[in-house]
Every structure is written in structure tokens, then in C-alpha cells.
């Protein structure tokens, strides 16, 4: 009975974490990974440690990519160093204004950074901001897919044992 309870809690954590990959008010992939850990160590100790290690690596990669991808796509869409710095600072400042402050902060930071670089070229500033937004969407998509993979692997393990 206790094992079933932990299994249910782990599934709830994974599902809420998947929702958090889209809704910034929730922790996201870290919560899903906590669900995988709970499943492994309290729900089903026979669950392969390989999956746990793989999801740990993917979770760490996603944490890094959440910051790197928007910077790279900002540059790809014509953003300057000022836009990248503005996006980084905007993200940090935006963290103090949940739930969507970090997104607005990042986009506003890129835009203002580009305007500081070249006040006359608002089109370039807009394009760089568009690049940052596209990068954010890529990162969110990656997080969602990793969370979904966690859910499916645990679900398959439950139904095949």
C-alpha cells in the first residue's frame, strides 16, 4: 500500500512538473525529476538507475539551455552584445516578479539593450527580441519533451511490471 502511495505521488509530481514547463508559476522539470527520484527510491526500487541518471543529465542540460538558447537565438536574429547582456540582466531582474516576470524581463532587457546599442534601429531591436522569444519557446519545448519522456518511462514501467 505504501509503495502505491509513493507511486501515485511521484506521478502527480511528474505531471505537475510537466505543467510547470509551460506555466512559469510552477517549478517545472525539477519537480518532474523529483517525481522520478521518488518513484525510484520509494515507489519501485527496481526501476533502472540508468533512467534516473539519464533524466538527471537531461534536467541539468535543460537548466543550462534555458539561459543559453535565448542568448544564441538573440544573436542569430541580429542581436548585439548589448542585447545579450540586457536579456541576461532582464531575466535576473524578472525573477523577482513571478510568475512571468523573467520572460517579460528577458524580452524587455534584449529590446532595451539593443536600443542602447543603436537607438535609431528599432527594427533590429525588435528582431533581436523576437530571437530571444523564439529561443525561449525552443527551451520550453525541450523541457516539455523531457518531462513527457519522464512521465512515459515511469508509466511504461508501472504497466510492465
Automatic annotation (TrEMBL):
<feature type="transmembrane region" description="Helical">
    <location>
        <begin position="49"/>
        <end position="69"/>
    </location>
</feature>
<keyword id="KW-1133">Transmembrane helix</keyword>
<feature type="transmembrane region" description="Helical">
    <location>
        <begin position="6"/>
        <end position="37"/>
    </location>
</feature>
<keyword id="KW-0812">Transmembrane</keyword>
<keyword id="KW-0472">Membrane</keyword>
<feature type="transmembrane region" description="Helical">
    <location>
        <begin position="133"/>
        <end position="156"/>
    </location>
</feature>
<dbReference type="InterPro" id="IPR007403">
    <property type="entry name" value="DUF456"/>
</dbReference>
<dbReference type="Pfam" id="PF04306">
    <property type="entry name" value="DUF456"/>
</dbReference>
<feature type="transmembrane region" description="Helical">
    <location>
        <begin position="89"/>
        <end position="112"/>
    </location>
</feature>
<protein>
    <submittedName>
        <fullName>Membrane protein</fullName>
    </submittedName>
</protein>
